[in-house]
Design a protein that fits this description.
The complex is a heterodimer of chains A (220) and B (396).
Chain A: E1 2-13, E2 16-28, E3 33-37, H1 44-51, E4 59-64, E5 67-68, H2 74-83, E6 85-88, H3 100-110, H4 115-128, H5 144-155, E7 162-166, H6 174-189, E8 193-197, H7 201-204, E9 209-214, E10 217-219
Parallel strand pairs in A: 3-8, 3-9, 6-7, 7-8
Antiparallel strand pairs in A: 1-2, 1-4, 4-5, 9-10
Helix pairs in contact in A: 3-4, 3-5, 4-5
Chain B: H1 4-14, H2 16-52, E1 57-66, E2 69-72, H3 78-84, E3 90-105, E4 108-117, H4 119-130, E5 132-135, E6 145-148, H5 150-154, E7 166-169, E8 172-180, H6 185-191, E9 194-198, H7 199-206, E10 213-218, H8 224-239, E11 245-249, H9 250-293, H10 295-303, H11 308-349, H12 359-385, H13 389-394
Helix pairs in contact in B: 1-11, 2-9, 2-11, 2-12, 3-8, 9-10, 9-12, 11-12
The chains are: A alpha/beta (220), B alpha+beta (396).
Bound molecules: adenosine-5'-triphosphate and magnesium ion.
Magnesium ion binds next to helix 1 of chain A.
Chain lengths: 220, 396
Amino acid sequence: MIRTENLTKVYRMGEVEVQALREVNLEIQDGEFIAIIGPSGSGKSTLLNMIGCLDTPTSGAVFIDGIDTGKLSENGLAEIRREKIGFIFQQFNLVHTLNALENVALPMFFAGVKRETRLKRAEELLANVGLGNRIYHKPSEMSGGEQQRVAIARALSNDPEIVIGDEPTGNVDTKTGNTIMDILEGLNKEGRTVIVVTHDAEIAARAGRTKRMRDGRVLD
Amino acid sequence: MIDKFLLAYRSIRERRARSILTVLGIAVGIAAIVALMSVGYGMEEAITGELTGMADMISVMPGKITGHTYVELGSFTDRDVKDLQRISGIKDITAMTYDAAEVEYRNKRAPVFVLGGNAKELGSFYVEPVGIKEGRWLRENDFKGCVIGDRVANDFFDDVIHVNDKLIINGEKFIVVGIFEKASTLYASDVDPHIFLTLHAAKEALQTNEIKYIMVQVYNIDEAEGTAEEIEERINDNHGLDDFANAMTMGSMIEQIGDVFNIIRGVLVGIAAIALVVASIGIMNTMLMSVMERTHEIGVMKAIGAKSSDVLSLFLLESSMVSLVGGVVGCVLGAVAAKVISFGAGTALGIEFGAVVKPEVLLGGMAVAMVVGVLSGFYPARKASRMSPVEAVRYE
Ligand SMILES: Nc1ncnc2c1ncn2[C@@H]1O[C@H](COP(=O)(O)OP(=O)(O)OP(=O)(O)O)[C@@H](O)[C@H]1O
Ligand SMILES: [Mg+2]
């Protein structure tokens, strides 16, 4: 279970303060499929970054399976990012010097998985997202939709319980967006918690629950 | 495939031009060290090697050496030479005299240094190591014969001098009986510009009774130092001075030369070190640029679970690989350069010596390259490892 407690994030830029998150209290159950919507600048990405342990709150806390992530060391946070969470970005964020197979195997490399094992698993994961015939392509040689599927395969490589997507369909066309949502839905059916930020009401409708954000707050 | 090495290699290759420049920067620094050291060792070996063959020699001069300058205090007498003959352990003594003389050959005049000594002993110092090109060496009864060095024969006068030609030395006629080969490094200044006479003839021609130099050969090299001290004492007694005679064994000369070469090498290495500092700034620059450019990539790696230490070691590995290659290339270039330089210098100066590329120097060069690589890669690597994943991912 994921729980935020008065989660607050303030960005300071010189004199100006931006309240990106204001005392957000949110509970997400294991195996849930939740969509977060809201206008630009409402704090959706900030919230996901906190839950995904990419960023630290100004005040308040994020609990993942009862663990207060604010109390973890840097290595502890790296471990959660590596083992428990699969993060999918709007910009794909693949490593452009590596091919698809290597990109997918990368989190397993950092987890210390044996070479043969990780390459074999990476191949399977790519096959699962329909890219079995693209494994040696570099990101620059793939379409946006293909890159995003590589990113999904990468997010799954250490078999995480939680999959987080920050507008994963934002940079692909509607048809590809639907394919990606199909994959995410499938992951949820396997029992994973899926959290997706989207601007698209149709996509949000496929989630089990939708939360709306405005001005750094989660509305009821 | 995604081993650390491969990851590092990929990013080196990604920035190929800059990586090559960095490798070259290090290579030049290391090559400079290796080449300079090897040439230095080569020179030292060429000189001390020849001296070692003369380790049983003691040279005695009437003067003292203060610092690096020799001050002549006078000359030895026949009595000095006789007294030395009574010291035990001495095999041979050659008294020599020398001075500048006016020499005429086919109506052309030039000042040349004339050196006189006992034919047999003088011959034992120079004939074997240098070699006679034309004619023969002096005999004890050659009152009017002379042997000349290579430069006297070829350079000093308009015409080249041959055996049986006549020279006029300070107004007296002499016949050239022999001409030396061109001498090697060590002997060049002793032999090439000189005219050799028997002691008797030299005293006449130079109008002097002064003995300027005594060469002593001992039976036992181990006793050379003790004998040298005894020689100084005897001669000092004769002249009533404390510090008149200076007897130096070849052993101590070799040591002195070694000291001089240590200083020379130190200076050379200092110069090379500057080159290396420049090179290491180059590495640091390359690595810093690499970190900046890859802010995003580093962020991605951290976002998918890389630890700071993973990132640190990746970047350190990258800079070590660059410097390893730089080190290897530098060692090879340095060794080749050393050979070329020593050949070139040898040909230009007419001396014969080869660079000595010691394994220690190569290993040292590699070690320096690695240390420079790791040290200058460390700051950028740590900077990379401390990046926050979200800061990094936001860049695009
Ligand atoms: N690093 C930062 N420094 C300063 N302000 C920031 C930073 N990151 C986000 N913000 C601000 O925090 C607020 C929330 O940003 P956030 O990215 O969470 O919005 P969002 O809901 O994801 O928007 P969008 O739909 O456009 O992606 C915005 O006002 C944004 O300008
Ligand atoms: Mg956003």
